[in-house]
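Batch manifest, entry 17 of 40.
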Amino acid sequence: MGEFNAGKSSFVNALCGADVAPTGVTPTTATVNVLRYGAEPAARVVGHDGGTRPLPAAEVARFLTALRADEARAIRMVEIFLPVEALRRVEIVDTPGLNSILPEHERVTRDFLQEADAIVWVFAIGQAAKATERAALELAHGAGKRVLGVLNKVDRADAGEIDAVVAHVARSLGDLVETIIPFSATRAAAARAAGKSDAALAALTTALDERFFTQARALKRATAISALRRLLAAARAATDADAPAAQDFAAADAGLSRLEQSLRGALDSERIALRARLDETYRRAALEVREFVRPRSWLFGEHRATAADEAFLGELLEDSVTGALARTRAALLAAIADHGTAADGDAIVAAVDRAIDRFAAYARGVIDGGAVPDFFRHQLPRLRLEVGAIRDALVRRAPDPEQALFTPLRRELDGLFDGLHRALMDAEIDAGTRAALHATRLARPLAALAQVLDELDRSREGS
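Output type: structure tokens
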């Protein structure tokens, strides 16, 4: 890894002793190139959508240098298989520069950082230890990756400058890089072409052997554990989001019982209160009748009233019954509001509303359709014009709230509360089942995985 134009691909070619990494690509068309051993040269292009297509090995360099930006954007990586002995020991991921690539390429590069067993960070001598490099190296450090630093292009500086840059990098990034090897890919390539050895390449190979290759098993083990920890964290986040919500069903059932008790108490109170309000309604109606009726003029005559008087009495009784029912409705809804919740209160309110609306419609029908006309035609003509007698005559055909309102409402509420209690029981059973399945299938296996990973970490620290 390294920033763009640090000479990473040239470094890879020098390390492998063969031209395996394409060079000369531009920042906008750079791709992640994975170099692997293969008995025969071959390559394939892997897209972000998971699709692959073969690419002739001889065409890799030309393909990469001819890429358009939109084509490069769709490529996750290019796999290159070569019969190079160095690739038997290690797979090399040659990444684009982290400072000059498309956002999707940088995202892929950072993903490969997580997957890498170890990192060789290539610095360019003219621009080493920049703030952007420190940020990327801190990311690698946070991922638990060991990093070997290579100061490339030292052929462009003298010995004093090289020593100064190495010291500067060590001071700036020594906590993030294990060691820093001065190197020139150009010199190494020239030495290879001349059939000679290169001291810097030999020093680099030794450092890689000591720090990485001889510890390959431990490094790969650490990478695997790190990947499992990321999987564990992601799985726990997903299972926590999908975990059954904790519910206090006992408290919910107790609240429902309190609501039921409160509403039954309000019903008992309103059975008395509504009847008292209706009695007062008919007493006031009797007073009105005594005022507007024209008494009979002789013993065998009849009391008389007009059609307007009949209409007035009907309206008076309807309005009074409506007002009395409104107070009953308010009292019952207040009892529900004191203890109900959105889950059960709405259904109970609806039942109360239906019952009162039915009784109001029934009362209007009784008053207009029978009681008032019957009173004026059959009761009033020879009735004794005293308030008590008039009231008794009116009440005789009055709608009965006990049979038409309270008895059916209580019956409906009993069924409704029984259903709500059963629904809570069913929900508790269902929640318990889902919680047990969640624990058995997800939480416990993840906890077991976490325990195993902790044990692996302890064994690694002990070794």
